[in-house]
């Protein structure tokens, strides 16, 4: 989704906003990764499992995919390290990756991802996109709704929804939207111009 009202659209799907018209129907279990990640006052591992049964291979695959392996190696007690108010403080990027790992571990049917790569550097973001969100990632067979400011991810998604003034103005593949020469194409052009002016 590109444009205004992205996070609001996710809130509407989650039933957190009063809808004025229309219907929202969600079939299956939903996992939400908010833009502002949160952690509980418990171990890193408990934050990821979130009450679910520990499955060693699944857990380690998710740790790797969410780029948490290095963090576990430097934390005093690895994944048993207490985090939150009672434990160590984590960076925004670490919290974001733990939040994403928690949602992936939940094995939901639908994933609502509100700019989950915004707090990580580009190298880590690419790893997470490829290993979790993208067409070959852990969630490849799940429904993923990705809200992002990272236009470089857009060629790799199945469908793009352009939200303008709180309404869907366009939807289609990256190539289709470029060829339509509508809001999406104009947005990309202004982004490219802005990036060129800043270089």
Topology:
Blueprint: E1 2-3, H1 6-13, E2 30-33, E3 42-43, H2 44-49, H3 56-65, H4 69-74, E4 82-83, H5 92-105, E5 110-114, H6 122-133, E6 143-147, E7 160-164, E8 167-172, H7 174-180, H8 183-198
Parallel strand pairs: 1-7, 2-5, 5-6
Antiparallel strand pairs: 3-4, 7-8
What topology, given as strand order, has the largest sheet? 1-7-8
Strand content: 15-25%
Oligomer: single chain
Which residues form runs of ≥5 with pLDDT under 50? none
**Total helical elements:** 8
Task: Tell me about this structure.
The chain has helices at residues 6-13, 44-49, 56-65, 69-74, 92-105, 122-133, 174-180, 183-198; strands at 2-3, 30-33, 42-43, 82-83, 110-114, 143-147, 160-164, 167-172. By secondary structure, it is an alpha/beta fold. The protein has a domain at 29-155: 3-Layer(aba) Sandwich (Rossmann fold), CATH 3.40.50. A hairpin with a 2-residue loop joins strand 7 (160-164) and strand 8 (167-172). The chain is globular, with a radius of gyration of 18 Å. The two termini are 26 Å apart. The model has no long low-confidence stretch (mean pLDDT 89). This is ABC transporter domain-containing protein. It is a multi-pass membrane protein.
